[in-house]
Amino acid sequence: MRIALFVTCLADTMFPEAAKATVRLLERLGHEVVFPQDQTCCGQMHINTGYPDDALRLVRRHVRAFAPYDVVVAPSGSCVGSVRHQHAMVARGAGDERLASRAEEVARRTYELSELLVDVLGVTDVGAFYTHRVTYQPTCHSLRMIRVGDKPLRLLRQVRGLDLVELPQAEQCCGFGGTFAVKNADTSTAMLADKMRHVLSTRADVCTAGDASCLMHIGGGLSRLRVGVRTVHLAEILASTEPTGDPAERARTGGVTA
């Protein structure tokens, strides 16, 4: 299958390993991944903060970039949620019904990574190997907007070597919410403190999720506590495989090869 990668702003500028891991994983499963060069921001932050005119230009560009492809994947439930639930709305708000229809067509072919793997490709065991104790944070947009359900957990349960532990109060928001964390910093910090307490209670050494934005928020807080717990995107875990080579290489990679 030929799959277009919708990289997202955060993955492109701050967390490229999530995007690279998505490509490695899908290519390992036998699929061709292409990167439409014209893509840019999907416009979610413009829509959410009240700049519909700026968002409209980005929606047009997104539709133009991804319209030629039958399948689009993104390592982000948040951005996929925007494509599905906001793009056509923005176009209709501007009176552009043709763009709205084209946006809906692209949205129907756009998937978050775990959705693509489980619902479209029909796989839960992707051949991953990851020797860590891991807890999973279901991000708000993936949980409530695009409703990925237990798909990420079904994938993680098939990863060899991985010790998956349940996160208490998993469905509670981590407190990021884009500009919410800036405009309501005290509330955001309090929510983050609750989330970190629950993560630490699992004694996991890795917290994973399908959105780099939430992992950035949780990981930033955990790094300041200096507790040794890392945040790792779901795609990076699924792309990891058992290492080959000498024991020194195995020790260097921590038991996994990306």
How are strands sequenced across the largest beta sheet? 2-1-3-4
Instruction: Give the number of DSSP strands.
Output: 8
Roughly what percent helix? 40-55%
SS field, number of helical segments: 15
Query: Which series of helices and strands comes N to C?
Result: EHHEHHEHHHEHEHHEHHEHEHH
What is the average of the pLDDT values?
Answer: 92
Structural class: alpha/beta
**Rg result:** 18 Å
Percentage beta strand:
5-15%
* Biggest β-sheet description: 4 strands, parallel
Low-confidence stretches: none
Shape: globular
Number of domains: 2
Using the coordinates shown, work out and report the CATH topology of the largest domain.
Answer: Rossmann fold
Q: Give the N-to-C terminal Cα separation.
A: 22 Å
GO molecular function: oxidoreductase activity
Organism: Micromonospora acroterricola
GO cellular component, one term: cytosol
InterPro entries: Cys_rich_dom
Which helices and strands, and how do they pair?
Layout: E1 2-5, H1 9-13, H2 16-28, E2 32-34, H3 44-48, H4 52-66, E3 72-74, H5 77-85, H6 87-93, H7 97-108, E4 110-112, H8 113-120, E5 133-136, H9 140-145, H10 151-156, E6 163-165, H11 180-183, H12 185-201, E7 206-209, H13 212-225, E8 230-233, H14 234-239, H15 247-253
Parallel strand pairs: 1-2, 1-3, 3-4, 5-6, 5-7, 7-8
Helix pairs in contact: 4-6, 4-7, 5-7, 6-7, 12-13
GO cellular component, one term: cytosol
GO molecular function, one term: oxidoreductase activity
InterPro entries: Cys_rich_dom (IPR004017)
